[in-house]
Amino acid sequence: MAEHKITTDRRSILHLSDLAEITPSKDAVSANRIVGFNSRDSRARPFSLLRTSLIKKLKENNHRLVGITSASPAAGKSFLAMNLASSLARVSEEPVFLVDLDLRRASLSEYLGTAPEVGVESFIEQKTDRLGDVGYSISGTNLGLFPCVQRDQDTAELLAGTGFSRMIEQFRNESEASIILFDLPPVFANDDAMIILEQLDSYIMVADAGKTTRKQVEEVVAMLQPTPCIGSILNRYKGGFGDSYGYGYGGADYSRYYEQT
Ligand SMILES: Nc1ncnc2c1ncn2[C@@H]1O[C@H](COP(=O)(O)OP(=O)(O)O)[C@@H](O)[C@H]1O
Ligand SMILES: [Mg+2]
């Protein structure tokens, strides 16, 4: 009996090993400065710090599904999501999943120089009801990537549909991932980030040093309520604890980074 139960459970849960394997292009990984896979790269160090701080917060709050967003485009969300997820996957016993939900400007598969045939759009449009069909395991790592390969303009309809809720539900209840990171669109662009975040546990806010203002950060936090901001990353920050790339990670008390604006 017990053995039977274990078999059933195992089959209904999505495992990293169920996903088709893809191998990132070394050139793309290097050109796009994805350093999180490699612990010996000194540029990966700031991500280890972000990672440790994030893991602690997620545990404290019992959160698993976390979005990464910003006020405006090109703040560095996808770059940071890719580096952070690969860095998290290096230390996590259970797999880490990274999902591209910037449906209009998806970029994660390109960051790795891969060109998968289908992505999350296919599940959201209900062309498949198997989440495992739209995810890929990154060879040699503990990271599962759920890319978006077909950009769609009519995202409001997609996000309002049952396919989208079912996808989030499956990630939450039927996947073995310890952390599921969702790369989102910017909040000011349209409603997408707001709609998606209603169904996630919390989010990380990326601010672009010198560009994002304190007022914008406050507006974003207000717009996304009641979903909590679990931390903030000040990207392209010179003089922070990070290295020449400049990243700083703070708690929900994001405002301390904005004293001079
Ligand atoms: N800290 C950084 N150091 C170097 N390049 C960066 C950094 N942050 C972002 N970039 C680059 O800036 C561009 C925009 O970043 P991206 O993550 O795609 O923005 P977003 O997803 O917020 O729209 C990309 O080419 C990315 O590689
Ligand atoms: Mg992006």
Overall residue-averaged pLDDT value: 89
CATH topology (fold) name: Rossmann fold
Strand coverage percent: 15-25%
Distance linking N and C termini: 64 Å
Order of helices and strands: HEHHEHEHHEEHHEHEHEE
Low-confidence stretches: 252-261
Write structural notes for this entry.
The protein is an alpha/beta fold. The protein has a single domain, classed as Rossmann fold (3-Layer(aba) Sandwich), CATH 3.40.50.300. The chain is built from ten helices and nine strands. The chain has a nine-stranded mixed beta sheet with strand order 1-4-5-3-6-2-7-8-9, sandwiched between helices. Strand 7, helix 10 and strand 8 form a beta-alpha-beta unit. Helix 3 crosses helix 4. It starts with a helix and ends in an 11-residue tail after the last strand. The structure holds adenosine-5'-diphosphate and magnesium ion. Adenosine-5'-diphosphate binds next to helix 4.
Fold blueprint:
Elements: H1 2-12, E1 20-22, H2 26-31, H3 45-61, E2 65-70, H4 77-91, E3 96-100, H5 108-111, H6 120-124, E4 136-138, E5 143-146, H7 155-160, H8 162-173, E6 179-183, H9 192-197, E7 202-208, H10 214-224, E8 229-235, E9 247-250
Parallel strand pairs: 1-4, 2-6, 2-7, 3-5, 3-6, 7-8
Antiparallel strand pairs: 4-5, 8-9
Helix pairs in contact: 3-4
The chain binds adenosine-5'-diphosphate and magnesium ion.
